[in-house]
Amino acid sequence: xxxxxxxxxxxxxxxxxxxxxxxxxxxxxxxxxxxxxxxxxxxxxxxxxxxxxxxxxxxxxxxxxxxxxxxxxxxxxxxxxxxxxxxxxxxxxxxxxxxxxxxxxxxxxxxxxxxxxxxxxxxxxxxxxxxxxxxxxxxxxxxxxxxxxxxxxxxxxxxxxxxxxxxxxxxxxxxxxxxxxxxxxxxxxxxxxxxxxxxxxxxxxxxxxxxxxxxxxxxxxxxxxxxxxxxxxxxxxxxxxxxxxxxxxxxxxxxxxxxxxxxxxxxxxxxxxxxxxxxxxxxxxxxxxxxxxxxxxxxxxxxxxxxxxxxxxxxxxxxxxxxxxxxxxxxxxxxxxxxxxxxxxxxxxx
Length: 350
What we know:
Number of helices: 12
Low-confidence stretches: none
Helix content: 25-40%
Strand content: 15-25%
Structural class: alpha/beta
């Protein structure tokens, strides 16, 4: 596993801030100006990357009205929709990619895309994208995976609905090209995804089984699952983003608004920093606290010859004296000299 992978000059790995990818998908609602406004909002949020999806309805499916080419009527968001109509509505026109990427780069964002067929790869190569994403339903298209990996650029593989065998095959295919810049995203390909079906405990399993960096492509509502994923080792978080959910659109129902994206960036950073090291003991930030631990102190003025008792020696804050549990060893012994109240009781007083 490569401990650090760079995409567009941004380092990704356990020792770095989680790499947050804002997925625009179809939330542009067919309006280029809205798409550009989403780019601006993503840049203001602090997320590092913007991702598109590069396909057309014709590269995704056939313009047919047969049962196999329709979504089930019980689908929560797109009940009974024809695949062709859904992709026609959701796709990002290819002529929009360049202005979107140019604006993103000018605002300091890493901009790339999911390629859904070889024509998309050819197109994206001309735009010099810094990485590729394999969408969940394309993980079984090993030829497509191979073509993306052969570019030599980092490849991010989403795993919604895939078995470990499927994922392993895709990773092996990418590695066979000599490309070791591979990140696998745990994913539940349901829109929206129930949190209880996220199975985030699988993140370290994927990391260790495949020897790759692992992240989360998250379709749950809110940011809780993503923060938890970072605590389990995720180095990349991908979330769909829109300007306002009330504006509607094919993906709006499970997408984050800009203020939520900003909260995601901030809180995943906190989660990553909080992981620290697998060590137990006082932390650097606790050094001033240690001096306020309890210890034995002389609590009233005593004269030489007075016996040590609970009345003149007690466990109080701060530190400096003997540990409180040592009191039975000194109780009843005699003070050899006068001692002032507020003096830490040490062996030197005996």
